Amino acid sequence: MKLLTSLRLNFFSNLFKKLFGQTSKPNAAIASQQAGNQATSGFWLYAAPVHLVLQRDTFSLAAPVPLPLQSDEIAALTSALNSHFGADDMHFFWHENQWFLRLENNPNIQTSAPEKALNKDINAFLPTGTGAMHWAKFQNEVQMLLFEHPVNIARESRRLPVVNSIWCDGGGQLEN
Predict the structure, then answer these.
(1) Residues with Cβ < 8 Å from 166, sequence gap 6 or more?
(2) Element (H, E) at 48
(3) Which one of 20, 57, 131, 148 is separated from 175 by 20 to 30 angstroms, measured CA to CA?
(4) How many other CB atoms are there within 10 angstroms of residue 75's CB atom?
(5) Tell me: the pLDDT tens digits for 52-90?
């Protein structure tokens, strides 16, 4: 059974590499297209709003992912993110319980699913690859933008976990 599963994974990995020039299935692009977005151009990622918890000398990812938010909170956060990053051709979208980030170009990162990082030191699960340093700068900018956002101030006053980061994974592109 294990061999059969491995063969299937290798088959799909090779298929996507040949068809789309990528080694993993572009889950976010497929889901975004199914949600009604024009996902035929650009590079798409899931961009879940999350709460990182400070440990003694690191951060851990708290459940649930994504954080459950009210529709007005979602609208305010996506508006702030799009206003700030739109000039860089980075656009956030929300549909039902999924957040998406559309980039003009492949950021050259490999990501981990948030389920792997839950309640663990996130350092082992942060994006890797040739674009990882640039991506870390982007993540820091997102975190600074979210730090004193009115949505988080209101959530904190209600003793709810604040949205202090986003967790991106499932990236890829679809062919035109």
Answers:
(1) 47, 48, 49, 50, 99, 101, 139, 142
(2) strand 43-50
(3) 131
(4) 13
(5) 999 999 999 999 999 999 999 999 999 999 999 999 999
